[in-house]
Amino acid sequence: MDKVATTARLEARLPADIHALLKRAAEMQGRTLTDFVVSAAREAAVRAIEEIEIIRLSAEDQRLIAEAMLNPPEPSPALRRAFRRRDELFGPK
């Protein structure tokens, strides 16, 4: 069974100079205005989402995380109590 592509409509009012700019750029790439705008909007949306969702660490932060993973600190008293409580509730792992 073939999947039917679904679409949604988006309408926008924009200044005539912006419309002309978008149309010119689309024509220069041999694309329709719709294709150009959809593609540009998708790229901008992906970039915006990545900026929020992706954690970027400096080299020093990466080094600190690696160090903590390779040489973890001793468990604190609170963490030891939490492990004991977990074992009381669920049995030893």
Give a verbal description of the structure.
The longest helix has 21 residues, at 33-53. 65% of the residues lie in helices and 0% in strands. The mean pLDDT is 92. It has helices spanning 16-28, 33-53, 59-70, 77-90. The chain is built from four helices and no strands. Helix 1 crosses helix 2 (33-53). With 93 residues, it is an all-alpha fold. It folds into two domains: 16-53; 59-90, no CATH class.
Quickly describe the structure:
The chain has helices at residues 16-28, 33-53, 59-70, 77-90. With 93 residues, the chain is mainly α.
Query: In angstroms, what separates the terminal alpha carbons?
Result: 47 Å
Low-pLDDT runs: none
Main sheet attributes: strand count, strand direction, barrel closure: none
User: Helix coverage percent of residues?
Assistant: 55-70%
Number of helices: 4
Principal-axis shape equals elongated
Instruction: State the domain count.
Output: 2
- What's the average pLDDT? 92
Cα Rg:
27 Å
The fraction of residues assigned to DSSP E strands is: under 5%
Tell me the series of helices and strands, N- to C-terminal: HHHH
**Structural class from helices and strands?**
mainly alpha
In total, the number of strands is 0
Give the tags.
93 residues, mainly alpha, 2 domains, 4 helices, 65% helix, 0% strand, elongated
Compile the SSE list and pairings.
Elements: H1 16-28, H2 33-53, H3 59-70, H4 77-90
Helix pairs in contact: 1-2
